[in-house]
Amino acid sequence: MACIRSTTSEGSCDDLHKLQQNKKTQQKSITQIYTDWANHYLQKSRSRRHITDLQNDVMDGTVLADVIEAVTGLKVPDVVKKPKGSTQMVENINASLVFLSGLGVSLDGFTARDVKEGNLKAVLSLFFALSRYKQQQKQLLQERRELDKLREKKMESEATSVLPTR
Predict the structure, then answer these.
(1) In degrees, to the nearest 5, what angle opens at C-alpha 92 toward C-alphas 87 and 96?
(2) What crossing angle do the helices spanning 13-44 and 62-72 adopt, rounded to 10°?
(3) Full-model pTM
(4) Which long-range contacts (CB under 8 A, 24 or more apart) does 44-51 make?
(5) Phi and psi dihedrals of 18, rounded to 5?
(6) Residue 116's CB: how many other CB atoms inside 10 A?
(7) Is the pLDDT assigned to residue 132 strictly greater than 90?
(8) Where would I find the beta strands (DSSP E) of the chain?
(9) CB atoms within 10 A of CB 69
(10) What gap in Å lies between CA 157 and CA 65, rounded to an integer?
(11) Rounded to an integer, what distance in angstroms lies between the CA atom of residue 103 and that of residue 66?
(12) Is the pLDDT reported for residue 152 higher than 50?
């Protein structure tokens, strides 16, 4: 590996190599985090699927649809379970992206073809968006529960204040 340094540079080629290795390690750990996250939801939904390589396992769109269904609890329409060829794989991924867009998930910066081609940035962006959606849904559910408790307490206090005194 060649190292280009300016005359004012105090770093060495070894430093550059270490930075590059750290970036690769960080990407692997992020990939592993999303792999574990997806497997958690697949297991929770009692799916027989298991992701071992996030980048490659979502390339046909079927595992991706299974993860989306496990996370959202909703069925992704128009997914061919045994795609024959690259075109059906891209169509499967596109069906999942269209479905997520319909739920309000922001999917900017990548296409179904990017995911099909195993573009790591696209796959990680997709799973980041999906995890963010799930977190927002959990937060909304928590807020609804808190509102329901407040309403219940209000109704109880109104009911006790209306009771006649003897």
Answers:
(1) 145
(2) 70
(3) 0.74
(4) 44/70, 45/69, 45/70
(5) -65, -40
(6) 22
(7) yes
(8) none
(9) 19
(10) 47
(11) 16
(12) yes
